[in-house]
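Sharing a chain and its predicted structure for anyone who wants a worked example. Both blocks are below, sequence first, tokens second.
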Amino acid sequence: LKRILIDELSAVAKQYGEPRRSEILYDAPGDEDDEPEEEMPDYPVTVFYTREGYFKKITPQSLRMSGEQKLKEGDAVEVQLETRNNAELLFFTSKCQVYKCRVGDFDDGKASVMGDYIAARLGMEEGETPVYMALTTDYKGHMFFLFANGKAAKVPMDAYATKQNRRKLLSAFSDKSPLVY
């Protein structure tokens, strides 16, 4: 059977065979479109997240020269962290979703500006508000959720890591009971 198959292939090659029309390139140069995206500049920043959902990042130089943080009346800083410009931000929302972005997606600010309103900046749904901001560079550790029914959930941070550049993660935590913390 093997011999018959080889003979048939030889006959077809003799009848229809032509020399190669194209050249085989083993080290083909990459297209200009295939170049990796430009890396996010990496420098130290301090990020601020407020109870009303405002976010701003300030470089250490600007922070040293500034006085008090400007905030909306009745607002207060909930999170103040020193980090790097290329760190990832995760904004957990009232509709059990997570919006992902990088610190470098926001402009450097000053203490005298209020910052960006997260719900508008990230395009959240109507009535959806950010309830917590997490910051990570390596997706290590856990998120701990406390619910009104007395239950708690511990979710590994790597559950929120994505291979593609997705900005919105649905069903990021349980919606069976209201989130307390």
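Comments welcome. Residues 2-16 form the longest helix (15 residues).
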